[in-house]
Amino acid sequence: RQIAEDLRQLAEHRLTLVAYEQRVTIVKVMEALQAKDMSTGRHSAAVSAYLREFAAFRGMSESEVKFATVLGLVHDIGKLSVP
Protein backbone atom coordinates (compact mmCIF):
# COMPACT_ATOMS: atom_id res chain seq x y z
CA ARG A 1 0.00 0.00 0.00
CA GLN A 2 2.84 2.40 0.81
CA ILE A 3 4.53 1.64 -2.50
CA ALA A 4 1.36 2.57 -4.38
CA GLU A 5 1.14 5.86 -2.47
CA ASP A 6 4.81 6.61 -3.16
CA LEU A 7 4.29 5.94 -6.87
CA ARG A 8 1.22 8.21 -6.93
CA GLN A 9 3.17 11.03 -5.28
CA LEU A 10 6.07 10.55 -7.69
CA ALA A 11 3.70 10.67 -10.67
CA GLU A 12 2.08 13.88 -9.37
CA HIS A 13 5.51 15.42 -8.86
CA ARG A 14 6.59 14.50 -12.40
CA LEU A 15 3.39 15.98 -13.85
CA THR A 16 4.06 19.21 -11.94
CA LEU A 17 7.57 19.34 -13.41
CA VAL A 18 6.26 18.73 -16.93
CA ALA A 19 3.67 21.46 -16.51
CA TYR A 20 6.38 23.84 -15.26
CA GLU A 21 8.67 23.00 -18.18
CA GLN A 22 5.81 23.59 -20.61
CA ARG A 23 5.12 27.00 -19.06
CA VAL A 24 8.79 27.92 -19.36
CA THR A 25 8.77 26.86 -23.02
CA ILE A 26 5.65 28.91 -23.74
CA VAL A 27 7.18 31.97 -22.07
CA LYS A 28 10.33 31.56 -24.18
CA VAL A 29 8.23 31.31 -27.36
CA MET A 30 6.31 34.43 -26.37
CA GLU A 31 9.55 36.30 -25.67
CA ALA A 32 10.89 35.29 -29.08
CA LEU A 33 7.67 36.41 -30.80
CA GLN A 34 7.77 39.71 -28.93
CA ALA A 35 11.43 40.25 -29.88
CA LYS A 36 10.76 39.55 -33.54
CA ASP A 37 7.56 41.57 -33.80
CA MET A 38 6.10 43.48 -30.87
CA SER A 39 2.60 43.58 -32.37
CA THR A 40 2.52 39.79 -32.76
CA GLY A 41 3.38 39.36 -29.09
CA ARG A 42 0.59 41.71 -28.03
CA HIS A 43 -1.80 40.05 -30.48
CA SER A 44 -1.04 36.57 -29.11
CA ALA A 45 -1.63 37.77 -25.54
CA ALA A 46 -4.96 39.30 -26.58
CA VAL A 47 -6.08 36.15 -28.44
CA SER A 48 -5.15 34.12 -25.37
CA ALA A 49 -7.32 36.32 -23.14
CA TYR A 50 -10.24 36.15 -25.58
CA LEU A 51 -10.02 32.37 -25.85
CA ARG A 52 -9.83 32.00 -22.06
CA GLU A 53 -12.96 34.12 -21.61
CA PHE A 54 -14.81 32.37 -24.43
CA ALA A 55 -13.97 28.91 -23.08
CA ALA A 56 -15.15 29.94 -19.61
CA PHE A 57 -18.32 31.45 -21.09
CA ARG A 58 -19.03 28.17 -22.92
CA GLY A 59 -18.77 26.32 -19.60
CA MET A 60 -15.69 24.31 -20.46
CA SER A 61 -13.75 22.51 -17.74
CA GLU A 62 -10.83 24.20 -16.00
CA SER A 63 -8.33 22.12 -17.98
CA GLU A 64 -10.04 23.03 -21.27
CA VAL A 65 -9.96 26.72 -20.33
CA LYS A 66 -6.23 26.45 -19.58
CA PHE A 67 -5.67 24.64 -22.88
CA ALA A 68 -7.55 27.34 -24.81
CA THR A 69 -5.45 29.98 -23.06
CA VAL A 70 -2.23 28.27 -24.14
CA LEU A 71 -3.50 27.84 -27.70
CA GLY A 72 -4.08 31.56 -27.91
CA LEU A 73 -0.52 32.25 -26.82
CA VAL A 74 1.10 29.98 -29.39
CA HIS A 75 -1.31 30.27 -32.33
CA ASP A 76 1.17 32.44 -34.30
CA ILE A 77 4.25 30.36 -33.52
CA GLY A 78 4.92 29.91 -37.24
CA LYS A 79 5.81 33.59 -37.47
CA LEU A 80 9.10 32.78 -35.76
CA SER A 81 10.39 31.18 -38.94
CA VAL A 82 8.05 32.38 -41.69
CA PRO A 83 8.21 36.04 -42.68
Question: Which features characterize this protein?
Answer:
83 residues; mainly alpha; flat
| Count of DSSP-assigned helices | 3
Number of strands: 0
Unreliably modeled segments: none
Rg over alpha carbons? 17 Å
Descriptive report:
- This protein has 83 residues and is an all-alpha fold.
- The chain contains three helices and no strands.
- It has helices at residues 2-36, 38-57, 62-74.
- The longest helix is centred in the N-terminal third of the chain and has 35 residues, at 2-36.
- The protein starts with a helix and ends in a 9-residue tail after the last helix.
- The mean pLDDT is 83.
In short:
This protein is mainly alpha-helical and 83 residues long.
Write the layout of secondary structure elements.
Blueprint: H1 2-36, H2 38-57, H3 62-74
Helix pairs in contact: 1-2, 2-3
